[in-house]
């Protein structure tokens, strides 16, 4: 019996197992609660992911090295710094700005006639980072030892730990969703085993009149799959509604007001009820097979 | 067709003396057997072997030609549809009315109850449960339960009918009616085996049908004395 046929009604098989009001309501309720939690966790994971990506793409993958040194040491220190940078992992390229480039940078401040060559302006080295970036503290230490006049400016590097945290939050969200799925499976397994144990007499009678294990298992599997599907659909609906009704923060919105589903992300919560039903189907089927092969 | 060859069966550990031993018997199509013997001799156990609920601990048992020892559980389920069994303790699904219980073999074998409605009604009327069709099993008397169990055993028109004390709880008149039904079914070519203490029933039957009477005692099967 496959997962889809578990949904096809079979009035005969549905009636041979006595109705079990309490377990039924418990399964529906738990499935609904789990789906509700999963929807929120999903919204959280997606928001964390969006934040990490936004910050990450905003992060300039560049840094500047400033060398201030007496004029006669300048070429030497610049050369040493460039060599050192080329050997640093995480540095894509390093290039000393030419005089006219430096002049263009300073022009807004000092006017067009600035004699860069005569002034003790620092030499600027432009660093392009690789995707992973370099380790600024390590680089600073090495520069200190070999290029005393160098100052490393790493722009908005302070955001990096935040991006990492946001990424970690997203990962934790997905782990939590996986756990919710596992808990659903465990809960359905327990409920199914309880139902099978409570109906040992019914199973004995069914066997006496020639029911196969597949038929008996099917009656239980269908019931639990449908209950889980119903519960998960209700829970997902309520969760999605709650997320949709969260106030949006507009421009000033931070992480909290970004808790929503955008565009195709709406597809994800819609997948929860069928996924929950699939989990319930597999869990009940394996529980039923185990119990039925134990009952002689 | 049920064939036993030197079959033994014991409920206890392997080393214990078996409850039943050296059973060799063929229930040929169309035959009529009585199985008698003192209480606790193993009549019910013998019938359980015959419908695959128990597997021999020794010897070979073939149901419709297939060795029970090698039969998977689904195979036994299919065999059960060819053997109608009236159990001594007549278990039903208490949450379903009598009519659905009688139709249960149809339900579990995937047949549509509506197609068999005529059969079902005839059968209910015949066993005298027409008026009780929508009662629930716990509301039935002992005799009514037995008649319902017989109707359930017959609904699939099985080739073999095994009845364990089918007249244990009914009055003489009803037991004669049940016997007549079983004899009529045997007349249609069905194999019948009845386990009973009721010697009067056996005598009444022998006046009407060619029946073999077997006696279980001390764990072995013997032909019954000439008084039967
Ligand atoms: N499941 C079981 N486990 C262990 N012993 C059993 C089991 N079922 C029956 N027995 C024992 O096997 C013996 C034979 O039982 P069985 O029910 O076959 O007897 P019977 O001939 O049908 O008796 P009765 O005429 O009272 O119905 C009895 O001593 C009984 O206690
Ligand atoms: Mg008995």
TrEMBL record, chain A:
Biological process (GO), any one: cell division
Organismal lineage: Bacteria, Pseudomonadati, Pseudomonadota, Alphaproteobacteria, Rhodobacterales
Membrane topology: Multi-pass membrane protein
Alphabetically ordered keywords of this record: Cell cycle, Cell division, Cell membrane, Membrane, Transmembrane, Transmembrane helix
InterPro entries: ABC3_permease_C, FtsX
Lineage top rank: taxon: Bacteria
Protein name per UniProt: Cell division transport system permease protein
Residue span, ABC3 transporter permease C-terminal domain: 175-290
Organism: Citreimonas salinaria
Locations listed in the record: Cell membrane
Any single GO CC term annotated in Swiss-Prot or TrEMBL for this entry: plasma membrane
UniProtKB/TrEMBL annotation, chain B:
Annotated protein name in UniProt: Cell division transport system ATP-binding protein
A GO cellular component annotation in the UniProt record: plasma membrane
Keyword annotations of the record: ATP-binding, Cell cycle, Cell division, Nucleotide-binding
Domain ABC transporter: from-to ranges: 2-228
Species this protein is from: Citreimonas salinaria
Gene Ontology molecular function terms on file: ATP binding; ATP hydrolysis activity; transmembrane transporter activity
PANTHER family in the record: CELL DIVISION ATP-BINDING PROTEIN FTSE, IMPORT ATP-BINDING PROTEIN
Gene Ontology process terms (BP): cell division
Keyword flag ATP-binding: yes
